[in-house]
Design brief:
The protein is mainly α. It folds into two domains: 97 residues, no CATH class; 52 residues, no CATH class. 54% of the residues lie in helices and 11% in strands. Strand 2 and strand 3 form a beta hairpin. The longest helix is centred in the last third of the chain and has 20 residues. The protein starts with a helix and ends with a strand. The mean pLDDT is 92.
Protein backbone atom coordinates (compact mmCIF):
# COMPACT_ATOMS: atom_id res chain seq x y z
CA UNK A 1 0.00 0.00 0.00
CA UNK A 2 1.37 3.30 -1.12
CA UNK A 3 1.69 5.84 1.72
CA UNK A 4 2.82 8.56 -0.76
CA UNK A 5 -0.39 8.08 -2.74
CA UNK A 6 -2.33 8.29 0.53
CA UNK A 7 -0.52 11.54 1.40
CA UNK A 8 -1.72 12.98 -1.91
CA UNK A 9 -5.27 11.99 -0.94
CA UNK A 10 -4.76 13.71 2.44
CA UNK A 11 -3.75 16.91 0.64
CA UNK A 12 -6.81 16.67 -1.63
CA UNK A 13 -9.05 16.17 1.41
CA UNK A 14 -7.44 19.09 3.23
CA UNK A 15 -7.95 21.30 0.18
CA UNK A 16 -11.65 20.40 0.21
CA UNK A 17 -12.02 21.33 3.89
CA UNK A 18 -13.96 24.43 4.85
CA UNK A 19 -13.68 26.82 7.78
CA UNK A 20 -16.08 24.70 9.87
CA UNK A 21 -13.74 21.72 9.47
CA UNK A 22 -10.84 23.89 10.65
CA UNK A 23 -12.81 25.16 13.65
CA UNK A 24 -13.79 21.61 14.59
CA UNK A 25 -10.18 20.42 14.25
CA UNK A 26 -8.97 23.23 16.52
CA UNK A 27 -11.61 22.43 19.13
CA UNK A 28 -10.76 18.74 18.96
CA UNK A 29 -7.03 19.25 19.41
CA UNK A 30 -7.13 22.10 21.94
CA UNK A 31 -10.31 21.22 23.83
CA UNK A 32 -11.31 23.85 26.39
CA UNK A 33 -8.17 25.81 25.53
CA UNK A 34 -9.18 26.38 21.89
CA UNK A 35 -9.69 30.13 22.25
CA UNK A 36 -6.35 30.55 24.05
CA UNK A 37 -4.67 28.37 21.38
CA UNK A 38 -6.00 30.54 18.54
CA UNK A 39 -5.19 33.71 20.48
CA UNK A 40 -1.58 32.57 20.86
CA UNK A 41 -1.33 31.71 17.17
CA UNK A 42 -2.79 34.92 15.78
CA UNK A 43 -1.48 37.30 18.44
CA UNK A 44 -4.77 39.14 18.82
CA UNK A 45 -7.24 39.76 21.63
CA UNK A 46 -9.19 36.88 23.19
CA UNK A 47 -12.52 38.18 21.82
CA UNK A 48 -11.07 38.10 18.29
CA UNK A 49 -9.93 34.51 18.76
CA UNK A 50 -13.38 33.60 20.14
CA UNK A 51 -15.03 35.14 17.07
CA UNK A 52 -12.70 33.18 14.76
CA UNK A 53 -13.97 29.98 16.40
CA UNK A 54 -17.64 30.95 16.34
CA UNK A 55 -19.54 28.68 13.94
CA UNK A 56 -21.75 31.43 12.47
CA UNK A 57 -20.14 34.76 13.30
CA UNK A 58 -16.54 34.22 12.21
CA UNK A 59 -15.20 37.00 9.95
CA UNK A 60 -15.72 35.66 6.41
CA UNK A 61 -12.66 37.49 5.11
CA UNK A 62 -10.52 35.58 7.63
CA UNK A 63 -11.67 32.09 6.56
CA UNK A 64 -8.40 31.29 4.70
CA UNK A 65 -6.41 32.38 7.76
CA UNK A 66 -8.54 30.22 10.06
CA UNK A 67 -8.04 27.20 7.79
CA UNK A 68 -4.29 27.88 7.67
CA UNK A 69 -4.09 27.43 11.46
CA UNK A 70 -4.72 23.69 11.02
CA UNK A 71 -2.47 20.97 9.59
CA UNK A 72 -3.44 19.05 6.47
CA UNK A 73 -3.72 15.85 8.52
CA UNK A 74 -6.17 17.44 10.97
CA UNK A 75 -8.25 18.94 8.14
CA UNK A 76 -8.30 15.59 6.31
CA UNK A 77 -9.34 13.87 9.54
CA UNK A 78 -12.31 16.24 9.86
CA UNK A 79 -13.34 15.59 6.25
CA UNK A 80 -13.08 11.83 6.87
CA UNK A 81 -15.07 12.18 10.11
CA UNK A 82 -18.03 13.59 8.15
CA UNK A 83 -17.62 11.26 5.15
CA UNK A 84 -20.83 10.05 3.58
CA UNK A 85 -19.42 8.38 0.48
CA UNK A 86 -16.14 6.96 -0.79
CA UNK A 87 -16.12 6.82 -4.58
CA UNK A 88 -13.75 4.58 -6.49
CA UNK A 89 -13.31 5.99 -9.99
CA UNK A 90 -12.77 3.02 -12.30
CA UNK A 91 -10.78 -0.04 -11.35
CA UNK A 92 -8.37 0.06 -8.45
CA UNK A 93 -5.10 -1.82 -8.11
CA UNK A 94 -4.83 -4.16 -5.13
CA UNK A 95 -1.90 -5.91 -3.46
CA UNK A 96 -1.40 -8.83 -1.12
CA UNK A 97 -0.78 -7.26 2.28
CA UNK A 98 1.86 -9.72 3.39
CA UNK A 99 4.14 -9.46 0.36
CA UNK A 100 2.87 -6.20 -1.20
CA UNK A 101 2.86 -8.14 -4.49
CA UNK A 102 0.37 -6.82 -7.03
CA UNK A 103 -2.87 -8.75 -7.33
CA UNK A 104 -4.22 -6.95 -10.39
CA UNK A 105 -7.11 -4.53 -10.35
CA UNK A 106 -10.68 -4.84 -9.17
CA UNK A 107 -13.98 -3.10 -9.78
CA UNK A 108 -14.45 -2.03 -6.18
CA UNK A 109 -17.90 -0.60 -5.46
CA UNK A 110 -18.39 2.82 -3.94
CA UNK A 111 -18.78 2.88 -0.17
CA UNK A 112 -22.18 4.48 0.38
CA UNK A 113 -23.62 2.74 3.42
CA UNK A 114 -21.25 2.28 6.30
CA UNK A 115 -21.36 -1.06 8.07
CA UNK A 116 -19.98 -1.23 11.60
CA UNK A 117 -16.69 -2.56 10.18
CA UNK A 118 -16.36 0.22 7.59
CA UNK A 119 -17.19 2.85 10.21
CA UNK A 120 -14.58 1.39 12.57
CA UNK A 121 -11.93 1.46 9.84
CA UNK A 122 -12.73 5.08 8.98
CA UNK A 123 -12.44 5.95 12.68
CA UNK A 124 -9.06 4.20 12.72
CA UNK A 125 -8.01 6.25 9.67
CA UNK A 126 -9.01 9.46 11.46
CA UNK A 127 -7.05 8.41 14.55
CA UNK A 128 -4.04 7.56 12.40
CA UNK A 129 -4.12 11.00 10.80
CA UNK A 130 -4.20 12.61 14.23
CA UNK A 131 -1.43 10.41 15.69
CA UNK A 132 1.72 12.05 16.99
CA UNK A 133 4.14 9.89 14.98
CA UNK A 134 3.55 11.43 11.55
CA UNK A 135 4.83 8.57 9.35
CA UNK A 136 3.53 5.79 11.62
CA UNK A 137 0.17 7.54 11.85
CA UNK A 138 -0.01 7.92 8.06
CA UNK A 139 0.86 4.25 7.62
CA UNK A 140 -1.91 3.27 10.05
CA UNK A 141 -4.38 5.63 8.37
CA UNK A 142 -3.44 4.27 4.93
CA UNK A 143 -4.11 0.71 6.03
CA UNK A 144 -7.36 1.65 7.79
CA UNK A 145 -8.83 3.44 4.76
CA UNK A 146 -7.70 0.58 2.52
CA UNK A 147 -9.47 -1.81 4.90
CA UNK A 148 -12.68 0.24 4.74
CA UNK A 149 -12.68 0.13 0.93
CA UNK A 150 -11.78 -3.57 0.60
CA UNK A 151 -14.13 -4.60 3.45
CA UNK A 152 -16.97 -2.97 1.52
CA UNK A 153 -15.94 -5.01 -1.54
CA UNK A 154 -16.03 -8.28 0.40
CA UNK A 155 -16.09 -8.51 4.19
CA UNK A 156 -12.98 -10.24 5.53
CA UNK A 157 -10.97 -9.75 2.34
CA UNK A 158 -9.26 -6.74 3.94
CA UNK A 159 -7.20 -9.22 5.98
CA UNK A 160 -5.48 -10.36 2.76
CA UNK A 161 -5.76 -7.54 0.19
CA UNK A 162 -5.08 -3.83 0.31
CA UNK A 163 -5.58 -0.86 -2.00
CA UNK A 164 -2.33 -0.31 -3.90
CA UNK A 165 -2.81 3.44 -4.42
CA UNK A 166 -5.43 6.07 -3.73
CA UNK A 167 -5.16 8.10 -6.93
CA UNK A 168 -8.67 7.16 -8.08
CA UNK A 169 -10.37 7.51 -4.68
CA UNK A 170 -12.73 10.41 -3.99
CA UNK A 171 -14.20 11.12 -0.57
CA UNK A 172 -17.27 13.28 0.02
Amino acid sequence: MNVDSFEELVHRLAASADVHDAQAAIRLSAGDGAVRYVQDLIGKHRSTARRWLHADEYPRTRAPEIIALVSDNALAAEVLRRTVKITVLGRTDVVYKQSLKGQGSRDVPDVESFSANVHAYITDAVNGLLADGHKDGLKDATEALSNAIICNYEDGLEEVLGVADFDNISIT
